[in-house]
Design goal:
Elements: H1 3-39, H2 42-49, H3 52-72, H4 78-96, H5 98-102, H6 105-128, H7 134-157, H8 160-186, H9 195-223
Length: 227
Amino acid sequence: MTTTSLTQVQTVQINLMQKVYVWMCTALLITAATAYVVSGSEAVLSLIFSSKVSFYVLLFAQLGLVWYLTASIQKLTLNTASILFVIYSFLTGVTLSSIFVVYTSASIASTFVVTAATFGAMSLYGYYTKRDLTSWGNLLFMALLGLIIASVVNLFMNNETIYWITTYAGVLIFVGLTAYDTQKIKALVSVEDNEQTQKLAILGALSLYLDFINLFLYLLRFLGRKK
């Protein structure tokens, strides 16, 4: 690869990652603002969390949106993909409003700062490292499946040991996924800055957004101070 073409690829990579981080930060702001506002309304909190039906409808709506956006990104228009991502960010904020009821605002804020610092460090590592992190993907995916299964089982067992094991594992898994996903997104380069590139940026932002949110929630188990 010539110096000119290498420079062009690096420029495209930087532009792509800038779009990814802008979308991710926008989604995080929407989620945080929504969670804070909803947490201040007892009526809305009661509507969501007093009934298992309403809570699971909200949860499955989120899962459905993630699946549909990921599977159909190539077919969707840029506007549709953007709207779906914003809706998902909003719904996640509604779900996360409960943390303002359980934890103090100060501990939520401090945990967010710790999460941002950890996420930033691992994302930079994933972007700049010369090491191929592809091998991490399968290991992290299998570990994530194990984490999900263990967490579901512990909903019924309510075992404190399993709770803390999944907490430690969750932090490690999403720290690793942050670096892996960043490197994977960096490789999604396109010579032209077209609509397809914009949609790739949204898809990449969704991956990093999920890494950030999950890392934050697992760290909150350690650092959060309950009211």
